Amino acid sequence: MHDCARRRRQNPARRPRTQPTNTMAPVKVKLVILLLTAVSSDALSPLAPVRAAKRVFLRRGGAAPTLPISSQDVADAQRAWGDGIVEIGRIYTAKGDYKAEAVKVLGDLYGWDSKMDVLFKPTKAANPAIRLDYDEALSYFVGADSADKPVAEDKGFAIAPWTAVRFDNKKTLFLSDSATAMGEYYFTGLDGSETKVEYTFQYRRAADGSLKIVVHHSSVPFAA
């Protein structure tokens, strides 16, 4: 009896181990869900191609993004240009700061602010007919009276005003780093009439992946 009691004291019954509670598991699950949601949302975003180009740019330490330009990219850029022209005219009619809007449009759509060379030959320009300088381009759109460095002949193409602009591309040439579109665009005036103009636009991607105009040539149709 004494031996049995001694053994019981030396080898007490083992208590069942309590499994540790993993308090981090719910947090990890939430983080995974948030990550998957963010990835899915980014992939579905209209800006996903631009963000992808920016990631390429950062990985390459400043090398120019190589994301190809699509026909949809060109259509979006042309729509933005037309909307910008209409908006400048709308603000002018409402006696607002149309010059500030023009500065924004040129900055968003043309290559000057991205340190890119731009060839600009607008429709209603004679002296100079070809504008290589940003200030001369701004003068063309807003008129000499509102320009910082006015060109005397400029009446302000964008403050006509126009109520709509539509593009009709005849052909778009896609190269490795550019897209060049040629066709006719139509400007609708306040009276509803349309003015047809012939154009050539070339687009390139800036360092941030956005599409910029680097060639803009417009002319009125030749009358035989």
Automatic annotation (TrEMBL):
Protein's UniProt name: Phosphoribosyl-AMP cyclohydrolase
Compositional bias per record (Basic residues), positions renumbered to this chain: 1-17
Region (Disordered): 1-22
Source domain of life: Eukaryota
